[in-house]
TrEMBL record, chain A:
This is PucR-like helix-turn-helix protein. The lineage of its organism: Bacteria, Bacillati, Actinomycetota, Actinomycetes, Pseudonocardiales. It comes from Pseudonocardia sediminis. It comes from the Bacteria. InterPro entries: PucR_C-HTH_sf (IPR042070).
TrEMBL record, chain B:
Keywords: Hydrolase. Coiled coil: none annotated. The keyword Hydrolase applies. One of its GO terms (molecular function) is hydrolase activity. It comes from the Bacteria. This is Acetyl esterase/lipase. It comes from Pseudonocardia sediminis.
Length: 357, 320
């Protein structure tokens, strides 16, 4: 995988390889992978042998980047030819000849943590999560979250927003702030905390959550993930939850498999080539003429489509009673249910394509 | 959100996806072809061959319609007597990759078994749609057979092998060689082969937007090759071997595939078809495996098992 990491940074020099390493070990910990598997991953990521030695019970193992066990003289790693971490009777190392590579430190740190967890480290380590993961989980007791916030240098009296991005997001500018990968039902998400008045972050795709105090940052994160999932690579590469008022926060609490006939009935409409743009235009405007202008079609064309939509839905999406609300909400939930933003990597920054090697 | 039931990825492989996703997105649409050609280009072959006693020679041969295509021949340095030969067809969804993509895995056959590897630079879709890729491959097979003496390849021990799109093309070569009275083959290695343009299997529907090579990617690849003909009645079994109605008289087949990939069911069906026709097939379905996991995550337990099992079969067929 070292070669793959090299390819990623050749394709996108700004790519956060460290986050990928962290996400990789997060999955290994969650998957309860054994020490040989952990060393294999570390060796594969770094391109050199990786090893560990445990004092009690005495055990040691060295593994090659191909996952093969390397004969060991049982001795400690040779100083100078490798990097090592030793703590509480456990040493892990990677056998780098020469200068360390830029990801060696993070590989080693994650390996040390993962091996400790596998060997039955302390309770908090079994949890396997770091401060930001704890802070953003409402199930964690509030005292623990406040402590985590303090360790992240977040001020209790200040307000912040959480930004949610996939690991493959393209960042034109990367704000400094507490950040980490956080496990969610949608896979590992890159979370970043910025001050509430931070300028919009030029990155895509990203979702930006509402401003809250430290105690409610989990809420900002959940909402940011919904905003992220509302992103569309073409139309809306970045979504601010604020633009939707409380609506996105509402969606954060909605089980997506809940029975919603209004959403189901949009499936047929969205299967038309004109479906998505027409629905979007109807949501954002209040008359056939405005919607036609937004969608860039003649108003008679839009009227025909609207007739089709009314026939399919059984209500008028432009109806000033409850119809508009039903339609707007259903279209948001439909976009969430059919979100592909977490599947589709932004290939690379569009300007100045970088040749491989 | 997907509510489709599907087998989980193996934990080590799932961890690998955090890295793999950066070079090989799960969903490949036509607008990503240019990106994939850069991201899936093989590393310089000199690096891959470093430390191996392998000699490489380059040849320009007549491909489909007699047009020139490039072929590399990789032989054990100093091999005297004729050796077993393998025509190797690379992966890359019919649209990207080059003749050395995934080659490091098959170079062990040159190193350990003394085989001669013939790697073909077949032309890629969509610029070169069907029949270019398969007929370029077939031309390389015929060339390897007719030039066997100069290449130091044994006539009685010639095999085809390929991965993914290359696996489909290798199976197509075996079918064409049978039908056209072409070179006699001693085996066909079909790694997670891309066999069926119709996209109708259960496993095809199980993997959308996850892993490596999902349903949409597969449609992109087959459409690039077949255009409007994809899924229709007029697709050649040499392009999509799942279309073959007669699977008798084929060389022994080795087929491996992941349980967590879209090609699972078509690979199983192809092995089943070979058995039903009285043929010789060995099938391995690797639990928790995403597509081409041996290429992307060779350090994992599952990948080492897959490679070891495959190498054992190839040794059985090819070794002296």
């Amino acid at each position: 995988m070292q070669e793959l990491l090299g390819r990623i940074s050749a394709l996108d020099p700004q790519a956060s390889l460290g986050l990928r390493v962290i996400a990789c070990f997060d999955e290994l910990i969650i998957g309860n992978v054994n020490t040989r598997g952990l060393l294999s991953a570390a060796a594969s990521l770094s391109g050199c042998n990786a090893g560990y030695r445990h004092d009690l019970p005495p055990r040691s193992l060295r593994v090659s980047p191909r996952g093969e066990v390397v004969a060991s003289d049982d001795g400690p790693p040779t100083p100078g030819s490798c990097s090592a971490i030793t703590a509480e009777g456990l040493t892990v190392w990677i056998e780098r000849d020469g200068e360390p590579h830029s990801n060696d430190a993070i590989v080693l740190e994650r390996l040390a943590l993962a091996v400790r967890v596998r060997l039955g480290g302390g309770r908090r380590e079994i949890d396997g999560r770091r401060d930001l993961g704890l802070l953003l989980d409402p199930a964690v007791p509030i005292e623990s979250r406040r402590l985590a916030a303090a360790r992240l240098n977040l001020v209790p009296t200040a307000r912040y927003r959480v930004i949610a991005a996939p690991l493959f997001a393209v960042w034109d500018e990367h704000p400094s702030g507490a950040e980490d990968v956080v496990a969610t039902p949608y896979g590992s998400i890159h979370a970043l905390v910025v001050p509430h008045d931070h300028a919009p972050v030029p990155a895509r795709p990203i979702g930006t959550g509402p401003a809250t105090d430290v105690d409610h940052l989990h809420r900002s994160f959940r909402t940011a993930v919904v905003a992220l999932r509302l992103c569309d690579p073409e139309v809306a590469p970045s979504v601010l939850a604020d633009d939707y008022g409380g609506l996105v926060g509402l969606l954060a609490d909605l089980p997506l498999d809940s029975d919603l006939p209004d959403v189901d009935s949009l499936d047929a409409i969205m299967s038309h080539t004109w479906g998505s743009t027409t629905v979007d235009a109807l949501v954002r405007t209040s008359s056939v003429r405005q919607a036609a202008r937004t969608a860039g079609v003649h108003h008679s064309t839009l009227q025909t489509r609207l007739d089709t939509i009314i026939a399919e839905l059984g209500y008028d999406p432009l109806d000033n009673g409850i119809g508009r609300t039903r339609f707007g909400l259903a279209s948001l939930v439909w976009r969430l249910r059919n979100s592909r933003v977490l599947d589709l990597p932004a290939p690379t920054r569009t300007s100045s394509p970088t040749p491989l090697r | 959100m997907s509510s489709v039931a599907r087998p989980e990825f193996d934990p080590e492989l799932k961890a690998g996806l955090a890295v793999v996703g950066g070079v090989f997105p799960p969903t490949i649409t036509p607008d990503l072809i240019a990106f994939m050609r850069r991201s899936y280009a093989s590393p310089p072959i000199e690096n891959t061959l470093r430390g191996r006693a392998i000699t490489r020679s380059e040849h320009t041969i007549a491909g489909h319609r007699g047009e020139p295509i490039q072929v590399s021949v990789l032989r054990p340095t100093g091999a005297g007597s004729p050796r077993p030969g393998i025509v190797f067809v690379h992966s890359g969804g019919l649209m990207f990759g080059d003749r050395f993509s995934g080659a490091d895995l098959v170079l062990d056959w040159v190193d350990n078994l003394g085989a001669v590897l013939v790697a073909v630079e077949y032309r890629l879709a969509p610029e070169f749609p069907d029949p270019f890729p398969r007929e370029d491959c077939y031309a390389a097979l015929e060339w390897a057979a007719t030039t066997a003496e100069q290449l130091g390849i044994r006539h009685d021990r010639l095999m085809v092998a390929g991965a993914s799109s290359g696996g489909g093309l290798a199976a197509g070569m075996a079918l064409a060689a049978r039908d056209r009275g072409g070179p006699a083959l001693c085996g066909q290695v079909l790694d997670y082969p891309m066999l069926d343009d119709r996209g109708v299997t259960a496993s095809t529907g199980q993997f959308d937007g996850v892993g490596v090579w999902d349903r949409v990617s597969n449609e992109t690849g087959w459409s690039a090759l077949l255009g409007e003909a994809r899924g229709g009645p007029d697709v050649s079994p040499y392009a999509a071997p799942a279309r073959a109605t007669n699977l008798s008289g084929l060389p022994p087949a080795f087929i491996d595939v992941g349980a967590a990939e879209i090609f699972r069911d078509e690979a199983i069906a192809y092995a089943d078809g070979l058995w039903a026709a009285g043929g010789d097939a060995e099938l391995h379905v690797w639990s928790g495996g995403f597509h081409a996991f041996d290429i992307f995550a060779p350090h994992t337990v599952v990948a080492r098992g897959m490679v070891r099992t495959r190498d054992t079969w190839v040794e059985k067929i090819l070794a002296d």
